[in-house]
Known about the structure:
By secondary structure, the chain is α/β, with parallel strands linked by helices. The chain has a single domain, classed as Collagenase (Catalytic Domain). Helices cover 37% and strands 20% of the residues. The protein has six helices and six strands; from the N terminus they run αβαβββαββααα. Strands 3-2-1-4-6-5 form a six-stranded mixed sheet, with helices on both faces. The longest helix is centred in the N-terminal third of the chain and has 21 residues.
Amino acid sequence: MTRRNAIGATVLLADGAASGAAAPLEIPLVRITDKYARSNPASRTQFLSRIWKEAEQVFASAGMPLRTADRVGEVLQYPSGRPRFRCLDRGIINIVLTDRVPLDWDKGRSLAGVSAMYEGFCICVISMNEAHGNQIPFVSVNTIAHELLHVLLQDVFRDRTSIFHGQSSEARVDLHATRLWLFGRDETVRESAQVCLERLHSMPHDTSYDASCGRA
């Protein structure tokens, strides 16, 4: 990174990371562990104790603690190859922990995670085998924080021809993730998160399909 780029990056980081304490904004999540995930208990423990814990600390330090409820679910597949999720909740962020992103979404890219509005559910799918913690600012940030920011910054609500995010969206998310990581605050994220949570809560519930543990 050149000296000019370094100065520019510092300005971008500081912009939007306003000082001043505010009341905590809880981020409610359902953390769903795929019972078919091919990962051993030691790997899962390491994922939760290091990568997930780091994400919790990042959001808590920014006044946005994660309020997490746990359950076991399933990642299945329709005959067409599209993923089918069970044990999800509507009106809330569902974090699905599995061994790999479903093939129909991954396209052989070994993705660490992907976020989308899918069949009326807000979903972040995290590959426990590919996920990582904060490594390099702007380039390699905590996988869980990255995917949660795609939701909180409302990327998942935008019309796209693909569920995957373009490079500009990825760079934007990594910028905000870096602000949270290094500065412990980001007013842009906080404001957008408030709108996002209200938007999810107010979404109509389609009772014709219920993915809550497979009940139709």
